[in-house]
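Weekly structure sync, notes
Attendees: PL (lead), two postdocs, one rotation student
Agenda item 3: pending single-chain targets
PL asked that the sequence for the first pending target be pasted directly into the notes so everyone works from the same version. It is reproduced below exactly as submitted, 177 residues in total.
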Amino acid sequence: MGLFILIAMIGVPIAEIAVFIDVGERIGLGPTLVVVVLTAIMGTALLRMQGFAVLIKAQASLQENRFPLNELFDGLCLVFAGALLLTPGFVTDSVGFLLFVPPFRALLRMWATRVFTARGQIHMGTTGGPGPQHEPRRDEFGSIVIDGDFSDVTESKAGENPDEEVLPPPKLPPGNP
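Predicted structure, written out during the meeting:
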């Protein structure tokens, strides 16, 4: 990854300078500068329009109790596109405008999903101490304690459904209420 960043840091400015020189020779200095300023203005307008659209979609997802992962990815792409379009240069403008195209973002999202799924890992641990050597918390009887929250989502009360088995209350060790 570090090598890729190094090549990009050196290669992008060289490519930008080469394209600037070529475009400047073809259409002249004045029109070249006008095109650079116009791409920045167009990028700002596109960022505003598509940014609001993505924000509205994200709010709709949240109202549906769905995490707006696609919208967050699109928003990140739009922020990156805006930064590229505000950077003077034809190469960065091309990539920036490409990020404003929704089908391209969808392809990029599928690729990123594959990469992160293939390389992703989930680590779980216990609280109360660092590292995997931490012992689980135990109560006074030596049983492992698992903290958690719950809510009853059943529609009927215990015993109302004839197919439901009603269990007796658990027996507590002596000395507990």
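Discussion points:
- Residues 14-118 form one domain.
- The helical segments are 2-27, 29-63, 69-86, 90-99, 102-119.
Action: rotation student to compare against the earlier draft before next sync.
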